[in-house]
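Hi everyone, sorry if this is the wrong subforum. Our group has a chain we'd like a structural model of before ordering constructs, and none of us has done structure prediction before. Sequence below.
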Amino acid sequence: MYRIIKCARLAYPKGIKTTVWLLKIMLPISLFVRLLQYWGIIDWLATFLNSIFKYIGLPGSSAIVFITGATLTTYAGIAVMTSMALTLRQATILSLMMLLCHALPMECAVTHKTGSSFIGIVLLRISMAFAAAFYLNWILPVHTVPFELIKTSSNAIVTLPILLKEWCYSSLKLSAMIFIIIYLLMVLQQFLEMYHLMRPLSRPLIPLMKVFGLSPNSAYLWLVGNTLGISYGGAVMFDLLKSGNISKSEANEVNHHLAMNHSLLEDTCVFAAIGIGVGWIISTRLLFALIVVWGRKLFNCILHKK
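Answer:
Right subforum, don't worry. Here is the predicted structure as tokens:
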């Protein structure tokens, strides 16, 4: 019991620091998007992109959500998405696009340090994000259920003071939700580190690595990448590469899998909290991770036979 309390105490300042860092990104972006909507700029932008995004079941205005998530973080993308009028179906497609393709400058720099091509991973993640959008637009049931993280008043926002009031209310609720999720994840992280549970937990995953097309040596990296993210996973992978416990080709395979499916614990919690179906989140990410790794193996096999 003492150690659990200690984990909670150690996690609190980290949770506060991480939440503040995220909100510094999210809140200005959220307000900026609300103002763009108020001035009609989002509608103007949509007219140029509707012809492309309609093929993936999205309005052209939603491009700003994808671009924000791809260049910054999923949290920044969520801030934009929750500021727009979308259906739950559209929000689900957008969420999966962001989950497969987010924070490209930072995360692709990490995977580059562990042996993967920076440009290659960027192009892979962008192309797979659109492939996933086509896939979801094809299989998701057609419905018009609104996506409402924050229920706003039924009256249209016609004045700037009302817009700012609605934004402040939604921002407070979003901030509280993010802190709770981040704090609980930090407590879990402290607990895993304190009891040195990462390696013991990774051993039962070795058979699963064969299904994913990864080597048995990848189990520990897979667990780190899916609980602590690409940044932590990259640091661990770099150490394993230096010590010779994993080869460059094995590390490259793990990078391709994690490009599609990493931070599964955190991301699933965050997007589920805003109303996106857990089943769609997990199944789509695992499916595209399988497609990427096994597709790459098949391509290399065909290439070597020529």
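For your construct planning: The two ends are 62 Å apart (CA to CA). The first helix runs from residue 2 to 38.
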